[in-house]
Design goal:
Layout lengths: L1 H47 L6 H76 L1
């Protein structure tokens, strides 16, 4: 039983680490998405300024805006995939923690059973010796 309990605890520890990694990747993706939104906002503010921009600057800003928009679409899809992965890892972690809780319960019950059997054996020996 102890070997099985150690394995279950090791599985839970690995699952917790995988869950943390998935959440970290999701946070990185969300940060990248925020950076792209900020970049787009700055480019649009440049377009909206009252001052007239040279045609070359407008063309360059337009290309940058288009590239940022495309990249943001890719990042949004990646974020959705990472969010689903993080949810899956969370479910797996919950399951592993339930397994650990069950293993701990089995261990406690086995210990209680052993103590009870020891006490019964002692009581039987005392009654035999007293007779």
């Amino acid at each position: 039983m102890q070997k099985r309990d150690r394995k279950i605890r090791r599985i839970a520890a690995v699952q917790a680490r995988l869950h943390r990694i998935a959440e970290w990747q999701l946070m990185e993706c969300q940060a990248r998405e925020n950076q792209l939104e900020e970049k787009q906002r700055l480019i649009l503010e440049g377009f909206n300024d009252e001052s007239k921009l040279p045609d070359l600057a407008v063309q360059t800003a337009s290309q940058s805006l288009r590239a940022a928009s495309i990249e943001q679409g890719v990042v949004a899809k990646t974020r959705e995939r990472l969010a689903a992965h993080a949810r899956d890892e969370g479910r797996k972690l919950k399951h592993a923690l339930k397994m650990v809780k069950s293993a701990v319960g089995r261990t406690v019950r086995a210990d209680e059973k052993r103590v009870l059997e020891d006490e019964v054996d002692k009581a039987v020996r005392r009654s035999i010796e007293g007779a």
